Amino acid sequence: DTAVSQTPKYLVTQMGNDKSIKCEQNLGHDTMYWYKQDSKKFLKIMFSYNNKELIINETVPNRFSPKSPDKAHLNLHINSLELGDSAVYFCASSQGLAGNYEQYFGPGTRLTVT
Amino acid sequence: AQTVTQSQPEMSVQEAETVTLSCTYDTSESDYYLFWYKQPPSRQMILVIRQEAYKQQNATENRFSVNFQKAAKSFSLKISDSQLGDAAMYFCAYNENSNYQLIWGAGTKLIIKP
Predict the structure, then answer these.
(1) Nearest C-alpha neighbor of B20 from the set B72, B70, B62, B82
(2) Which pLDDT tens digit goes with each residue over A69-103?
């Protein structure tokens, strides 16, 4: 059973397009996250939702918009894609917001913008 | 602001030997949590080990153990009897109950020589 799944795993698209990445967790967790990992492997938090409520909204371009239709899903929509958006995007979930909770990660989506 | 520093961009070790990855952090809090995550070439991020700051005993998980020095704000990971499957990026991370997000180090790439 996949705990945190993301689709697609690979996404190649052209500049200016709009694309979405979907994330689902079957762990019953309350909190979900989106991370961006750049080519140097640095992980940056983008968004966090707790019980469908936006908790963390880091400084990312407003072309990125998360949507949480329910606690088990957190999707990421990206408008007007740019070359600099090329990266691996990870979805993660945790039981809650408390600091001791482990985060469970999806397999990542490698986005390539040409 | 809390920061996490991993001073070793890359480490290599002979198979079956022991290696230690270093991590230091900066915080004014007394209650917090520290994590080591592993990211193999498959990209999947996996929790290796966790330490609660209020616990004096160092955490251990099979061949993985930590040396937690609270006063020095140091949290190193020791891998004993290194195996080829240990080759990965290792990330140190910090969290506290009021922060709502993990603070990540830049990662250390571990190479295992057969």
Answers:
(1) B82
(2) 999 999 999 999 999 999 999 999 999 888 889 99
